[in-house]
Input
Amino acid sequence: MFTGIVEELGEVTAVETLDDACRFRLRGPVVTEGAKHGDSIAVNGVCLTVVEHEGDEFTADVMAETLNRSSLGALTVGSRVNLERPMALGARLGGHIVQGHVDGTGEILERKPSDHWEIVKISLPADLTRYVVEKGSITVDGISLTVVDAGPDYFTVSLIPTTLALTTLGLKQPGDPVNLEVDVVAKYVERLLGTRGAAQ
Output
């Protein structure tokens, strides 16, 4: 379980393409401190398992299903990535409940800078629109954000200088893909209401 509060901006240092998977080596001095085999680390919002850890780098395997449902397949050596360790039990929940299970990908459509923040417009897959509401929570590349405007096939978020400086959203440009995870509470509510309706 994660919070969507990015701990550091890491970097891909190696990519090994396998038959039906990829193995990434990533650098992240903060998230690798005390890391061991089997630990979870969110990479651009995708929960990955540490296979090996040496110094300030770790490796993680990404299966075909994850590559198909996320933007991790577009990563190359030198790509910057958002990194977060799982939330510790009893710690403050600074963002919102994030599972690290990507629901789909969007695309940066537009950026509108202003003096103190920036509005970013992101495309939204049709099957996710019902979960995205104005002032609701959404995870973009592992970052917990508040929806400003929810359109029929897009949404917008407002980024403060800290987010722009310390995450990949400060680097992404129109046309770039991003991982999306909708609020899991909305999915559970939908399932429960659907089940209740069917039982009546």
Observations:
- The mean pLDDT is 91.
